[in-house]
Amino acid sequence: MNGTIPAPTIEYALLAPMLVVFGAAIIGVLVEAFAPRYLRSAIHKPLTLLTLAGAFVITIWQARTGIPTTPSAMGAVAVDGPALFIWGTILVLAFVSVLLINDEGHFVASAAAVPGSAEEERALTEGATHTEVYPLVLFAVGGMLLFPAANDLLAMFVALEVMSLPLYLLCGLARRRRLLSQEAAVKYFLLGAFSSAFFLYGTALLYGYAGSVDLAKINTALGSVGGQDTLLYIGVAMLGVGLLFKIGAAPFQAWKPDVYQGSPTPITALMASGTLVAAFGALLRVFWVALGGLEWSWTPIMWGVAILTMVVGAILAITQTDIKRMLAYSSIAHGGFLLIGVVALGNNQQQNASALSALLFYLVAYGFTTVGAFAVVTTVRDAGGEAWHLSRWAGLGKRRPLVAVVFSLFLLAFAGIPLTSGFFGKYAVFQAAVAAGATPLVVVGVVSSAIAAFFYVRVIVLMFFSDPAADGPSVVIPGGTWAVGAVAVLATVVLGVFPQPVLDLAHTAAQSLFVR
Amino acid sequence: MTSQVPDLWPPSAQEVVFLLLGVVALGSALLVVTTRQLVHAALWLVVCFGALAGGYLVLTAEFVAWVQVLIYVGAIVVLLLFGIMLTRAPIGRSAGLDSGNRVTAATVAVGTAAVLVTVVVQGFATAYTPLEPGGGAAATLGASIFRSWVLPFEALSVLLLAALIGAIVLSRTDIRPANPAADAGGPAAPTTPPHPPDPAPPPADGSGATAGETGSGRVSRDGG
Amino acid sequence: MNGYFSSYLTVAVLLAIGLAVVSGALLVNRLLRPHRPTPEKLLTYECGVDPVGEGWAQSQVRYYVFTYLYVVFAVDAVFLFPWATIFAAPGFGVATLVEMFVFLAFIALGILYAWRKRVLTWT
């Protein structure tokens, strides 16, 4: 502590997208505190959208002006090719999710009012709204940006909490089926807190092993520290539990159906797309950078997890009658497919780069498709809210063919039918896995895709070949939702027919792999 | 860090105190999960945290010890107690605390404890560091926080802010001001532009369901 | 080394003496007083009239919110302590000062929000 220690350097330009999002969230809180009620929504909506768009532009500009090769912010953040690609993906997906949020009527009027009480009645008649949703979403998105870019386990843990806490809250703010929503929030919170505890314990054990929480230093310690294998393996296992929970991999997938079902659907869209992308970025960074040298130990376990996840997701989705739960199980299955790409780590840098680029492309394709699917789910409404039971969707193709066709497109993309983005995503990931010698995984992947296709096609058949109920649901498409649907359809079709530009972009991003 | 490992017997005074504190922590933790009275569980938790703080003190991590007392004992246990008081959980023995999975829970707990103890013992059996006071003082920690951990530190403030906002969203009931004319929160209700109260689908079809919606649909909100 | 442990030993002894005094007083009281309970004596005291209702009332959420605010500011204080010991040291310049003020500003924003939402009023 003498006078020659320099001040810490923070590369603000590199961190700008994150700082912009957090800054806008702070401004959102100020708006909440000071703006009169009738103005709040009018300020939040453009502010949030402009922030996300601006952060995206900054990310693009950063990617074009040069990707750094060393970690930034005193080693806490690594802004490299994959991180920038993931940032761009998260920001676009968050943008379309916020477009969904902008449409009225998804969020509760007064969260503190007991469901069914006079207070709730009063809040509804007064037209109260919780516009705090916007700054909370921005906080969550900021955390999603920091999580895959964190270069040491402590920053990653803080980012995990910043990402998750607002989401725990947002899950409980659904307007309809409030008790279910609050239950979803409590479940997500309890299980999420538990998994964060596992993550932290694993971090502590790995720190004990390696003497540092920095990812690159852990990797060096893998080669130099000897005789501490128990510490290492248990630490890695616990860390893995924390990360796999976030992805929704079996056997840690139990939260996903309940949380997706209970949350307001725009928040489900945000979670299904943004959280998944961020969590995979973090998982890749931890397992490829910090634990790359330990590959022979964790790859078999990851095989098992991937197989279990794919099978559980595909099979359990067949029995679901709630459309959001079905989409949640499908999301679990897709997590399994993505895990196939994670195990495709080899010794050859070219092979790793192609696996990474395949994963990045799949994340983009899946993100758009899932946001689109949930957007369609918000439009099909019964008297009491969204028509959640599958039987209510019968005959939708006859009454509102466009909506049914759009939803079918998304379901076919989930199934991986050619000419949709899902096909190229799966193809790229499976190809990378075969090149890395994980052919059995690919076989299981194809089989579970076929099983999953069953329930996707079942919904399509239900929509087009069944008769609608006499008092069937109506379809209400507000402006924002229409835009989201259009963007998602465009993305799914374009990425399915003409995927090369995005594949090349992913390849360029993945080329330099992760910064160490 | 590893230097000449002294013999385990005779134990030094610090080791004895640490062991005793560990026993207290373990015992009170067991009592937390086995007691039948909810408030007693929270109070045993205080003892457990206090013992942990004592353990940190023995290991010369002064600052962490006082943070433990300040945050865990001072804030978190109080939160727990207030949380208990907010629910209808009664004082005294409550029958519903036992989920009936004692055997499974005990097995899992013992298994986890065995794994963790094995890990720590195997990992650190030959590691020995002499305790130098001053390493855990506030100044040393401050130097490293504001040097190498600045970004996580600032991210923590964002986390605290988000948590604060969220807690207030979930618990704030709109407290009516005493004087409606002096409403600081915004114009009174009549002048707010009419938000569509619900996105109730315009009844193009289905008569019975929608007719009942506007009346009774408001109050009983939960079909599920 | 011995100075460190002996100073904390002093703290521990002080705690022990405090505990001993309080529990000793209560113990002596318990030993010395007569103990002849009757049903009327064991009733809950409610200002001299017969007690009505249960002894348990559900508390209100505003107490919880104050505790919650305390937690957030306690964590804030936890970071202020180490900062206070080092920010004037040579080598830590204005940067450290600004960092802490940014941290405080973010959290002050939270309390500002709470104030504006009338959470801090005691109705």
Automatic annotation (TrEMBL), chain B:
Superkingdom of the organism of origin: Bacteria
Segments crossing the lipid bilayer: 16-34, 41-59, 65-86, 106-129, 149-170
Keyword annotations of the record: Cell membrane, Membrane, NAD, Quinone, Transmembrane, Transmembrane helix
Membrane topology: Multi-pass membrane protein
Reactions mediated catalytically: a quinone + NADH + 5 H(+)(in) = a quinol + NAD(+) + 4 H(+)(out)
Composition bias, Pro residues: 190-204
InterPro entries attached to this UniProt entry: NADH_UbQ/plastoQ_OxRdtase_su6, Nuo/plastoQ_OxRdtase_6_NuoJ
Chain residue ranges for the region called Disordered: 179-224
Low complexity composition-biased segments: 179-189, 205-217
The keyword Ion transport belongs to this UniProt entry's keyword annotation: no
Record localization: Cell membrane
EC number: 7.1.1.-
UniProt family annotation: Belongs to the complex I subunit 6 family.
Functional summary from the UniProt entry: NDH-1 shuttles electrons from NADH, via FMN and iron-sulfur (Fe-S) centers, to quinones in the respiratory chain. Couples the redox reaction to proton translocation (for every two electrons transferred, four hydrogen ions are translocated across the cytoplasmic membrane), and thus conserves the redox energy in a proton gradient.
Protein name listed in UniProt: NADH-quinone oxidoreductase subunit J
Origin species: Microtetraspora malaysiensis
UniProtKB/TrEMBL annotation, chain C:
Assigned protein family: Belongs to the complex I subunit 3 family.
Localization annotation: Cell membrane; Membrane
Gene3D superfamilies per record: NADH:ubiquinone/plastoquinone oxidoreductase, chain 3 (1.20.58.1610)
Enzyme class label: translocase
Topological relation to the membrane, as annotated: Multi-pass membrane protein
Catalytic reaction list: a quinone + NADH + 5 H(+)(in) = a quinol + NAD(+) + 4 H(+)(out)
EC number per UniProt: 7.1.1.-
Annotated keywords: Membrane, NAD, Quinone, Transmembrane, Transmembrane helix, Transport
Transmembrane segments: 6-28, 63-86, 92-115
Protein name from the UniProt record: NADH-quinone oxidoreductase subunit
Species assigned in the record: Microtetraspora malaysiensis
One family name in Pfam for this protein: Oxidored_q4
Function as written in the Swiss-Prot or TrEMBL entry: NDH-1 shuttles electrons from NADH, via FMN and iron-sulfur (Fe-S) centers, to quinones in the respiratory chain.
